[in-house]
Specification:
By secondary structure, the chain is an alpha/beta fold. It is about 35% helix and about 15% strand. It has helices at about 15-30, 85-95, 105-110, 165-175, 210-215, 230-240, 250-255, 265-275, 280-295, 300-315; strands at about 5-10, 35-40, 55, 70-75, 95-100, 120, 145-150, 180-185, 200-205, 220, 245, 260.
C-alpha cells in the first residue's frame, strides 16, 4: 500500500479549507489503496511521517518545505496572487505534477508559475457532506423570526469578510430582522471592527459542528476577492440545499455560477433582499445548487483523478 502525505501550511486539525481538502482526499484515496497522513509543513521535515509521495497544499507556504523527490503541488488559492517568491517557483520546477482546482485557477497558475507548463492538471474540488451534529454550544440560537445570513470564512483580507457588514447596513436599517453571522478563524492580526448589533463574528466553528448553522441560514454568502477554485464552504452549503450569493470572481463563476453572483454593494443588497422577500425562489435556487453539486462535484471522480495522477508520480523515474 503506497503511503501518501499531505503537507499543509497549517496544523493538521485547524478549521481551514486546506485541512478539509486534505481530509476529504485522504478518505477517498484510502478506498483506492493508499494510506494517507497529514503534517504541518512549518515543522521539521525530519519529523514528518514516511511517504512515497508528498502533496503540498500551497505553492508558497508548503511546497518549498518539502524535500521529498516525489512532490505534487496543489494550488489552493492565496498562492495564485502577487509575485511568487523564488522558493515557490523552485518547488514548482522540481515538482512531478501540479494541480489546480478549476480552469480559472489553472490559467492564473500558468501565468504566475511558467515552471508548471506541461505538468498542470485540473481536478475540480468535490464536496463531502457536512456531518450531522447538534447545535454548537459556543453559538447562541438565532431568533426564529430573524433573516439569518451566514458567511463561513476565515478572517483575512483576501476573503474581505467585513464587506458584507458595510454593504448590508442600509438593508439592515429598513429590515430590523436581518442578522449576519461570520463563522471562521482569525488569521494573524486581522483587525475585528466594531460591529453593529445585527452582525456578529461567531469565531471558528469546527466543520463537524457547522451543518446546523448552515441549515438555519436563509442565505449563505461569500464576499471573497479570490479563491483557488470552487470553495469548500460554498459547495458544502449547496449540498445542504442552501441558496448562495457570492462575489463576482473567476472561481465563483465556475461555482456557484452566474445566477448567484453580485457586483457592487448596491447589487449585493438588491439580490439579498430579493431572495429574502421571495422564499420560494430562494428554495428553488438552493435545490438547483444541491442537484448541481451532486452531479458535478461528486467524490468518486475526484478520488479517481487524484489516484491516477499520484500513481503516475509513484511510477516516475527520478
Amino acid at each position: 500500500m503506497p503511503a501518501l502525505l499531505f503537507a499543509l501550511p497549517c496544523a493538521p486539525d485547524e478549521p481551514r479549507g486546506n485541512v478539509t481538502t486534505a481530509m476529504r482526499l485522504g478518505r477517498g484515496l484510502t478506498k483506492l489503496g493508499w494510506s494517507a497522513a497529514r503534517c504541518d509543513a512549518r515543522t521539521d521535515p525530519a519529523d514528518w511521517p514516511t511517504a512515497d509521495v508528498v502533496v503540498a497544499l500551497h505553492a508558497v507556504n508548503a511546497a518549498p518545505r518539502v524535500t521529498h523527490p516525489r512532490l505534487v503541488v496543489l494550488f489552493t488559492g492565496t498562492d495564485l496572487s502577487g509575485t511568487p517568491p523564488a522558493p515557490a517557483r523552485a518547488a514548482i520546477a522540481r515538482a512531478l505534477a501540479c494541480v489546480a482546482l478549476g480552469e480559472a485557477a489553472a490559467a492564473e497558475a500558468r501565468r504566475l508559475y511558467p515552471e508548471c507548463a506541461g505538468k498542470l492538471t485540473v481536478i475540480p474540488q468535490a464536496v463531502e457532506p457536512l456531518p450531522e451534529s447538534k447545535w454548537p454550544a459556543s453559538v447562541p440560537y438565532p431568533d426564529a423570526a430573524s433573516d439569518l445570513l451566514l458567511q463561513p470564512t476565515g478572517l483575512r483580507p483576501v476573503k474581505d469578510p467585513w464587506r458584507a457588514v458595510s454593504a448590508l447596513a442600509p438593508l439592515a436599517a429598513r429590515r430590523p430582522q436581518l442578522r449576519l453571522w461570520i463563522a471562521g478563524p482569525r488569521f494573524g492580526k486581522e483587525p475585528i471592527p466594531a460591529l453593529p448589533p445585527w452582525a456578529r463574528w461567531r469565531g471558528p466553528v469546527p466543520r463537524e459542528h457547522l451543518r446546523p448553522l448552515v441549515e438555519s441560514a436563509q442565505l449563505v454568502i461569500s464576499t471573497s476577492r479570490a479563491e483557488g477554485g470552487p470553495p469548500n464552504a460554498l459547495l458544502e452549503a449547496a449540498e445542504c440545499g442552501r441558496p448562495i450569493l457570492a462575489s463576482d470572481i473567476p472561481a465563483h463563476r465556475e461555482f456557484p455560477g452566474a445566477g448567484c453572483l453580485f457586483g457592487d454593494d448596491a447589487d449585493f443588497r438588491a439580490k439579498v433582499e430579493a431572495l429574502l422577500e421571495d422564499l420560494p425562489a430562494a428554495a428553488r435556487l438552493g435545490k438547483h445548487l444541491q442537484q448541481r453539486v451532486a452531479s458535478d462535484f461528486s467524490l468518486e471522480p475526484e478520488a479517481a483523478a487524484w489516484d491516477a495522477l499520484l500513481r503516475q508520480a509513484l511510477a516516475a523515474k527520478i
